Task: inverse folding
């Protein structure tokens, strides 16, 4: 058995995430973690909120709260939604933790000792009224190239030219609007990534061969364009402080590390938070430091995060000259769009995870999002597609099967699984088919191909319906009750098998299906090929109950009201 370390890209703290964030990072990681646990592997699934940086400070200011109070509340609010989605984190930490502060500072010291950090003076814009240095994107003004009057200090979004804040005409602070700005000289720490580029490339050559193209092509592109030295400190109040023992002057000036320096380190920090929560029983180091070859580390993220995970974080780890565990497999996603356009947090466009849960149970979203995950391309959420998929796959194919089988059997044979005849040719054929589909499903999950896995799962559900149509127990009962009992017993075994293998995708419904049967010791362990073929794990005589309706269909009226409430096709509306 392997030890699987799994992380999903850290959700940023400034607000509740949308369905794009969910399917691009946390949800697929959860499906994979659940699958591996069920197969008997040791799994550690780690995530956290990413709490530092200017947007967090600004969001706190807007909420009228001190930034630490704001982050604590926002963390709890996100955690509540993830609990609602049944994300099975072993730990959901906070990048503002003491653990992350200590480890981040350790990383910086080690990089410095090895000659990969340099102090450099840079010229930066200081706002007299805000009493702070302004990050480039918080300076706005008129673009010298196209005249657009809301260009940002790093880029003009109108003509897309890259800018320097001092290029802007009539520059002002995006925070206060004040134009009392001046350029001041200030010192920052630079990570000398250029010195590590060769090592990172060699590491990718040796380890990136099996990554999906999306991940490896982005990594290569960054290396080809040349790895630049990068400023890793900022003038903010909220962040991991530069350690005073190593950089007394910068520490006295209140410099903190840049959020992208400490965020990936929080994968380690959060693991230590997990260990510190149960001292003596949990060991974080064996996962991260001098980890042996039994540890396999898989990261989940969408494409914008790939450079940080495949190039910059590995460079940081390599530069410490310490045996930190590096990623083995990078599962990268494209975008989930909302009717072909971007989900937007700032414009509140699309569906947010809290609103989704208020509308419908988590399993509806989990199934749809994974079955339509943006793996090889961007994909779109539309309410029409969502309703069609819920109604057909979940309500008709799976839910209706469960309900039909259990209610008919209860009506004819009472509240125990009936015995009936011994399995015949139809059951042998069905067993072969199920074993084959199960092998396909497993192969796709092993290789993290979630859309294909969802297709195989759907095919498993459909096979039950075909079998039921073929045997037609509602007719069989009239001429051969023992034959009908066999059909129903076999179908009930399918329900139990569905409960076990659907668990990674739809955990709540899987629980409802599994607990319909009163089995003495049912640990929900994975199904073996022989068990799939035999379809006899639930023996005759097992008491069962009828679970409440698993999936309600989305009516045309509901569909129309969702489109109305959330906004549908922007082009159709225009
Ligand atoms: N539309 C999307 N589809 C898939 N993944 C996405 C999408 N938008 C963001 N992500 C991913 O979600 C994860 C968490 O992102 P984060 O909290 O930083 O939000 P973000 O990238 O700023 O998104 P947004 O700007 O839309 O709020 C990251 O891995 C990011 O790449
Ligand atoms: Zn411009």
Result:
């Amino acid at each position: 058995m392997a030890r699987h370390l799994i992380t999903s890209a850290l959700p940023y703290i400034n607000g509740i995430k949308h369905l794009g964030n969910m399917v691009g990072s946390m949800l697929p990681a959860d499906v994979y973690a659940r699958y591996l646990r069920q197969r008997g592997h040791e799994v550690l699934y780690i995530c956290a909120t990413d709490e530092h940086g200017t947007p967090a400070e600004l969001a706190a200011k807007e909420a009228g709260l001190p930034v630490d109070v704001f982050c604590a509340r926002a963390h709890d609010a996100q955690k509540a939604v993830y609990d609602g989605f049944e994300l099975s984190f072993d730990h959901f930490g906070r990048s503002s933790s003491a653990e992350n502060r200590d480890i981040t500072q350790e990383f910086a010291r080690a990089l410095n000792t090895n000659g990969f950090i340099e102090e450099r003076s840079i010229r930066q814009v200081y706002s007299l009224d805000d009493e702070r240095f302004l990050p480039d994107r918080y300076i706005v003004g008129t673009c010298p190239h196209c005249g657009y009057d809301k260009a940002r200090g790093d880029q003009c979004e109108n003509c897309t030219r890259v800018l320097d804040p001092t290029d802007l005409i009539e520059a002002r602070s995006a925070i206060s609007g004040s134009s009392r700005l001046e350029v001041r000289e200030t010192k920052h720490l630079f990570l000398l990534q250029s010195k590590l580029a060769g090592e990172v490339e060699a590491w990718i050559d040796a380890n990136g061969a099996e990554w999906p193209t999306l991940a490896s092509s982005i990594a290569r592109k960054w290396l080809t364009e040349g790895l630049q030295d990068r400023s890793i400190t900022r003038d903010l109040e909220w962040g991991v402080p530069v350690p005073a023992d190593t950089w007394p002057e910068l520490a006295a000036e209140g410099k903190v590390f840049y959020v992208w320096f400490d965020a990936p380190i929080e994968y380690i920090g959060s693991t230590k938070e997990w260990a510190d929560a149960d001292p003596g029983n949990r060991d974080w180091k064996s996962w991260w430091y001098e980890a042996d070859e039994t540890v396999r580390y898989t990261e989940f993220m969408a494409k914008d995060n790939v450079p940080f995970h495949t190039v910059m974080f590995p460079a940081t780890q390599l530069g410490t000259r310490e045996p930190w565990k590096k990623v083995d497999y990078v599962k990268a996603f494209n975008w989930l769009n909302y009717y072909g356009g971007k989900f937007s947090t700032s414009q509140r466009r699309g569906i947010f995870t809290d609103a989704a849960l208020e509308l419908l149970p988590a399993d509806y979203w989990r199934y749809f999002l994974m079955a339509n995950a943006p793996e090889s391309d961007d994909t779109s959420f539309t309410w029409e597609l969502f309703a069609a998929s819920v109604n057909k796959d979940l309500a008709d194919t799976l839910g209706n099967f469960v309900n039909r089988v259990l209610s008919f059997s209860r009506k004819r044979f009472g509240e125990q699984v009936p015995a009936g005849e011994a399995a015949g040719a139809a059951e042998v054929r069905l067993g072969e088919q199920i074993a084959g589909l199960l092998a396909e499903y497993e192969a796709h999950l092993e290789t993290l191909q979630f859309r294909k896995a969802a297709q195989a799962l759907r095919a498993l559900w459909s096979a039950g319906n075909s079998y039921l149509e073929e045997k037609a127990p509602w007719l069989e009962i009239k001429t051969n009750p023992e034959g009908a009992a066999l059909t129903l017993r076999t179908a009930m075994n399918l329900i139990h098998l569905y409960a076990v293998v659907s668990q990674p995708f739809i955990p709540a419904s899987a629980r409802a299906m599994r607990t319909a049967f009163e089995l003495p010791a049912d640990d929900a362990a994975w199904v073996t090929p022989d068990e799939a073929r035999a379809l006899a794990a639930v023996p005759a005589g097992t008491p069962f109950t009828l679970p409440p309706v698993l999936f309600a269909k989305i009516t045309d009226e509901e569909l129309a009201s969702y489109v109305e409430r959330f906004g549908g096709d922007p082009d159709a509306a225009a």
User: Anything to note?
Assistant: The pocket of adenosine-5'-triphosphate (ligand 1) is lined by residues 9, 11-12, 17, 20-21, 23-25, 301-302, 304-305, 333, 335-336, 343, 345 (CB under 6 Å). Residues 165 and 338 are 33 Å apart (CA to CA). The longest strand covers residues 117-127.
